[in-house]
Structures are given as C-alpha cells and as structure tokens.
Design goal:
Helix content is 33%, strand content 18%. The chain is built from seven helices and nine strands. α1 packs across α7 and α2 packs parallel to α3.
Length: 237
C-alpha cells in the first residue's frame, strides 16, 4: 500500500483539542484520514496544532528523506505565515519543535515572502523526486493577523514590523517573484480572494456555517467540515 504524507496545523492535526471548549471530544476522523481512504492509501499525518510553515515544510522533507519508497502523494497544508517555528534539544537529546505566535521581529511582508520560498521549494523538491503532490493554504494568509492586531488580541506586536494595511500587503504579494512560479498543484493559488485565489477556510467558510465548525467560538472544522475538506481536495487531485 502506498502512503499519503501530510503536514499542517490544527486544521489537519489528528489530535486537535478545542481550547475554548475542553469538554468537547474532537476525535472524529480528520481530512487526511478521509482522503487516504478515498485514495486507498495509508496516511502519515505529521500535522501539529499551532505550527507554522517552516514546521510543515521541514517535517515533510525530513519524512521524504526517511521514507523515499511507496509514497503515493504528498500534501502540504500550509498555515499562517507570521508563525515562526524552531527546534530545541529536549531532555533526551532529541529535537523538539516550538512555535512563536506571532513572530513580531520582522514585517508581515517578510513572513509572507518566506512562506512563498517554502511553497516554491516544496514544489520543486516534489517535482525533482517525481512525486504526486498538492499544496493548500488552510487558513487566512494575513486577514486574521490584521484583525487580531487591530483588536489587541496580542499583548505586544513589535513597533518595527512594517505597515500592516491590506493594500500594502496585497501589493507585496503581486510583486513577489514567486507569484508566477507556483503551478496548478497549489489549490487556490495565490491564496487571497482579492487576487483570485483562496484558502480552504475562505472557500468552505466554516466560520459562517455552523454545521461545518466545531462551535460558535471555535471555527475549526467539525466532523462535517473535515468531510467537506477531504471531498474538496479529492475533487481537485
């Protein structure tokens, strides 16, 4: 049997835990499991809640190096660009991932361009290894971050991170050297509705459709939402 290798954040994490609603059991099958069943593959789900794009890129790449055979498909389910992932040495000498949310040491435009480098590198690695692959952005590329900053969701956002207006951010995306380099294997590229793209959250609107989100105060996909994501990606393979 071939393997479906997936990495992502809380929208993809098999063990997602609803922080606003700790009494809820979120143990329903997540979209990678559902998609693997459709493809008759065995899933390797590397996703972890709260992680960013360096984690997603690195865990997939590390797995490809460990397991080069019997890979049926690889899917990068990208997250918010302003998250900074890094590794530290644990008590047993192993490397453990941590994430800074948000990383306010650089501009949001920098974080977006850094994510574009991950997207393009992932694409080229899969092409060079002759692997079937897809890319998707699961959540908003920058609007959630702007909303949270405007509403003081974060206790502190650095003063030197650059302009945070939507026009400037969209302009930086349009002018990116990667905008025309990402191919059709990226579902929803260039990820932003104003530019003709979308994230999975934008397309499925689980935050506005109660049947597809966990609760009113948690917009993560419910069981029905996970089924919608699996079907949506499957139809675009």
């Amino acid at each position: 049997m071939k393997y479906l290798i997936v990495s992502g954040d809380s929208w993809t994490d098999t063990n997602y835990y609803s922080t606003p609603n700790p009494q809820l059991k979120c143990d329903w099958p997540k979209w990678p499991d559902l998609l693997a069943d459709k493809l008759n593959m065995q899933v390797i789900n590397l996703a972890h809640s709260g992680r960013g794009n360096e984690y997603i890129y690195s865990t997939i790449l590390d797995r490809l190096m460990q397991q080069p055979d019997n890979i049926g498909m690889v899917i990068a389910a990208w997250s918010a660009p302003e998250r900074r992932d890094y590794q530290v040495i644990g008590e047993r000498g192993d490397y453990r991932w941590h994430t800074l949310r948000p990383d306010d040491t650089a501009s949001l435009m920098y974080h977006i361009q850094k994510s574009f480098r991950f997207f393009y590198s992932f694409q080229q690695i899969c092409e060079s290894l002759n692997l079937k692959y897809k890319q998707v952005l699961m959540i908003s590329f920058f609007k959630t971050f702007l909303f949270e900053c405007a509403n003081d969701f974060f206790e502190k956002v650095g003063e030197d991170i650059g302009p945070l207006d939507e026009h400037t951010i969209l302009k930086s995306i349009i002018n990116s050297p990667y905008i025309d380099k990402i191919n059709e294997n990226f579902i929803g590229w260039p990820c932003v509705e104003e530019l003709g793209g979308y994230s999975i959250k934008d397309k499925l609107n689980p935050g506005r459709m109660s049947d597809f989100q966990i609760a009113e105060n948690d917009s993560h996909p419910s069981s029905k939402g996970q089924e919608m994501i699996a079907n949506y990606i499957y139809d675009r393979l």
